[in-house]
Amino acid sequence: MNLSVRTIQKKFEKIEEPIAAASIAQVHKAIIKIRWEDHRLVAVKILRPNIEGKIKKDLKDFYLAAKILEKFSSEARRLRDHRCSQDPRRKPINGN
Fold it and tell me: What is the pLDDT of residues 1-26, one digit of tens each?
């Protein structure tokens, strides 16, 4: 879900600077308003810009590398390494 900065600001009373960061996202402490006077401290994971496209590209690259490896390695063919880099939401076609 892609939210605008304005939408995010409406949801949270306060968002602090990141407390943790990785290549895919940052984690921030934040305060959300539950009811009129009820607030709750939460952790918010914010994905880096364009990360979904970068992940898809990486998975395509891993898939290609695995398929090439399978051409040269009987062990790789047996394990079907290329299946590890497929989108887990996709159903394999003919078991490949």
Answer: 556 667 777 788 888 899 988 888 89
Residue type, 51: I
For residue 10, the tally of other CB atoms under 10 A from its CB is 10
Residues 96 and 81 sit within 8 Å (Cβ to Cβ): no
- Residue identified by tokens 């900065």 is 5
On whether the CB atoms of residues 49 and 55 are closer than 8 A, the answer is no
Q: Taking the CB of residue 28, how many other CB atoms lie within 10 A of it?
A: 19
Asked if 48 and 25 count as a contact pair (C-beta separation under 8 A), the reply is yes
**Which residue has 């539950």 as its token pair?**
34
